[in-house]
Each structure stands twice: as structure tokens, then as C-alpha cells.
Amino acid sequence: MRLMLRFTIPVERGNQAQLDDSLSRALKSLIDELTPEAAYFHLDDGKRAGTLVFEETDQSRLAIVNESLFKHCHAAIDIQPVLNLDDLMKGLE
Q1: Phi then psi for 90, rounded to 5 degrees?
Q2: Can you tell me whether residue 83 is helix, strand or coil?
Q3: CA nearest 75: which of 51, 49, 52, 93?
């Protein structure tokens, strides 16, 4: 199933994580774990944020995926299923 993970990191914790290098380690771990088809990093309401789209067949892995961002960055995380255009058109047929 294709999923979209969105996260935001509180400003103060993000600043600390940047200084102690845990931000880059958490993001590298997340990218290595998910191998996303798309990964974007941006601001959301003035906070560091990211959006990743990835495939996952074992939903139990999501707990592992979230932990690095929770533990190192105190991130708020939202994960939801998403469709690309081909999936949507197939579903509408």
C-alpha cells in the first residue's frame, strides 16, 4: 500500500536536534528504512516539516518507522494511504 507520512518538528527541539546532529541521523534513518518514492522537506506553520511517499506491505513496521522521529525530534506524525493518478483512475473504472 502506498502511504504518505507527514511530520512536523517543534522549533526548539528541532534547533537542539540540528545542533547535536540527531536531526540528520533521524532523517537518514527514516529515508534508509522507507526508501521513499518521493521525499520533500519544507516548513509547516514555521516548523521543520517533511512529506514522504512510500510503499509498505507490513503495517507493523510503522511503529519502527515512527520511533526515530518521535525519540530524536519529538515530531508530530501523520500517516495515511494515498493514490497516484493511475491508482485513482483504476479505482474509478
Answers
A1: -60, -45
A2: coil
A3: 49
Strand pairing category for 38-44 and 47-55: antiparallel
Q: How confident is the model at residue 68 (pLDDT cuts 50, 70, 90)?
A: confident
Rounded Cα–Cα distance for residues 73 and 20 (Å): 11
Give which of 58, 70, 56 is closest to 3, Cα–Cα: 56
75: cell is 515530531
Concatenating the DSSP letter of every residue in 11-39 gives: HHHHHHHHHTTHHHHHHHHHHHHH--SEE
Query: How much is the pTM?
Result: 0.89
23-67 pLDDT tens trace: 999 999 999 999 999 999 999 999 999 999 999 999 888 888 888
- Using only the alpha carbons of the chain, give its radius of gyration: 14
Question: Which is nearest to 83 in space by CA: 46, 55, 59?
Answer: 55
